[in-house]
Amino acid sequence: MKRGNRLTTFLNRWRKRRVDPATGETTETVTTETVETGKTPETVMEAAAVKHKNRAPVIAAGIILLTLATLLGLAFAPGARDSSVGRTIRFWEKAPPPEPAVPAGQLAMEVEQARTENPGGTIMIDPATAEALGLQTFEVEARAFDQQVRTTGRVTVDERRVTQVHTKVDGYIEETFGNFEGQQIRKGQPLFTIYSPELLASQQEYLIALRARGDFVKSEFEVVKRAGTTLVEASRRRLQLFDVTPEKIRELERTGNPSKTVTLYAPASGVVTERTAFPGMRVTPETQLYTLADLSTIWVEADVYESDLPNISVGTTTELILPNGETATGRIAYINPFVVPESRTARARIEVANPGLRLKPGMFVNVSLRSVQPPQVIVPRDAVLATGTRYLVLVAGENGRFMLREITTKGQNGEFYLVQSGVNVRDRVARNIQFLIDSETQLREAVDSQTGGGASPNKSGNSSGGMQGMPGM
């Protein structure tokens, strides 16, 4: 017989128990039934698996529905509705506001009572509390500060000591004595020789005027005598205007022979910074032949930020530190009235003596600007509470009383505020005011009343009980 047609026998057995009410005896009956089927064991197992698989989604859905029902019960049940679990399940609802620490209206009553009892905002700190807090005070004073501004500067030529060399006539350069840039030239030192037909003619005219004056002196007429002298003076003056030296004019008078070339001399001392004169070159009065720069006094151009400009002025002394560590001193001679938009700086010009030419144009130096300001009223920075729009200090009075007072500042200098108004010299102000505000509830309330509630840090803390003048202290 094939396996697919094999019979499968099932044995069903029932057990039945019966108790006789009269006698109390128990009777047990066993019934057995044999059932044959044409299904194979594999088929029976597959059918049982399919039946179990069809029940799984139903069971899962039932578990989910049961869970949802339990959560909804916790969320909306009267007993669990206000619990933390119920509010967590109802995530779409806003959390209720926290209950006030004090009954409604009590805080407002206490604040109003405090303002009535203490309209000036005076704070009482007894000696024990002051000692426990480490309360320190500072006596307001007027102090003169030595303002110091540090920046860098560039060494430049003093433009007032720059000389350009030109000729007064047309001509041709024969020989040069200033032969390279950077050469040190002294005033009166020969620079170059020039041949000029105009200069040669002027020499000849001068010689003619000298001979004519000798003839005019013999005249009987005074007008003719004076005319000879006038002609000589005009010719000599012409030579002088052409930069012919008195020595050359005397030599011309002595020899009576005009020179083909004339030597021109340096009009000032300095270093050759530019040279365009070369032998054989034709020149005119418009030709710039040399540029001489006197470096015995130089300028240092320092860029000062606009915030530091009020601390310096013309005449402010400066200290320069050279790259090799040497120092030099100078003073501010000029401050440019314009600020460079890109760097927000203004240029201060420092005039410095330069013996030995230690400072050279183009060199960078460190600059320290010092300016002594008149005495100004100051308070320490830790004694000032800055609220963003106002500045408050805690001024000490008599018998442990302190008063919050607003001050007007005009800047800072290191660890101090410069005070324009609000406190006077010899007033005493409490230091570490921020620490006091963090430590004492009463002081925080006093500051909040002065600033509208937004100045002091939002920190909780219990009062030490040493301050008096407000409720709950």
Q: What is the terminal separation in angstroms?
A: 106 Å
Radius of gyration: 55 Å
Note the beta-strand portion: 25-35%
Query: Which outline best applies?
Result: elongated
Structural commentary:
- The protein is an alpha+beta fold and 473 residues long.
- The protein folds into 4 domains: 1-96, no CATH class; 118-144 and 375-468, conserved putative lor/sdh protein from methanococcus maripaludis s2 fold (Beta Barrel); 149-158 and 294-372, Efflux pump adaptor protein, beta barrel domain (Elongation Factor Tu (Ef-tu), domain 3, Beta Barrel); 167-288, no CATH class.
- Helices cover 27% and strands 34% of the residues.
- The strands form 6 sheets. Strands 3, 5, 20, 21, 22, 23, 24 and 26 form an 8-stranded antiparallel sheet that branches. A 6-stranded antiparallel beta barrel has the order 6-15-18-17-16-19.
- Helix 5 runs antiparallel to helix 6 and helix 8 packs across helix 9 (441-451).
- The protein is elongated, with a radius of gyration of 55 Å.
Quick overview:
The protein is α+β, with helices and mostly antiparallel strands and 473 residues long. It is built from 9 helices and 26 strands. A hairpin with a 5-residue loop joins strand 16 and strand 17.
Indicate the topology.
Blueprint: E1 8-19, E2 26-37, H1 41-76, H2 84-89, H3 106-117, E3 122-125, H4 127-133, E4 137-139, E5 141-143, E6 146-157, E7 162-165, E8 171-176, E9 184-185, E10 190-195, H5 197-216, H6 222-241, H7 246-255, E11 261-265, E12 270-275, E13 282-283, E14 290-293, E15 297-305, E16 317-321, E17 327-335, E18 345-353, E19 364-372, E20 376-380, E21 385-386, E22 391-396, E23 401-413, E24 416-421, E25 428-430, H8 433-439, H9 441-451, E26 467-468
Helix pairs in contact: 5-6, 8-9
